[in-house]
Amino acid sequence: MPVTAEQIANVKTVTIRARAFSGESVRNHVVRVEGDDVLVWDSVAGHYTRCHCLSKSAIAKAKKLADEDFRILGRKVYHDRSGGHGHHWVRVTADDAFRDFVTEIECEIIDGGKDTCDSYRSCGGEFYRW
Description:
By secondary structure, the protein is α+β, with helices and mostly antiparallel strands. Helices cover 22% and strands 28% of the residues. The strands form 2 sheets. Strands 1-2-3-4 form a 4-stranded antiparallel sheet. It has a 4-stranded antiparallel sheet with strand order 6-5-8-7, with no helix packed on it.
């Protein structure tokens, strides 16, 4: 049966921190959410698989990340992919949730009192705005 455009549009990929396979510890995993199905990238097999041991809470977390409008402390955050030139702003997504800059931006909002910011240079040299 051919895949429809609607099915493709409902597939989302997120990164979660979990134990996905037996014999391994908790680590970051790329997970594909297809409606009610949650598949994990298996680097050994080279494809996504339903044969995983994600916990119910990890599956729920993956579904939540795939569904939610990702924000950092309630703010939409954008990343400048033009290297600081300011002409290629891209919305930060749930896939970025485990990267270091998220904590850095949270600190700037809370401790730095920056409710909004037109251009913020992170410790990694990347530019963000919110």
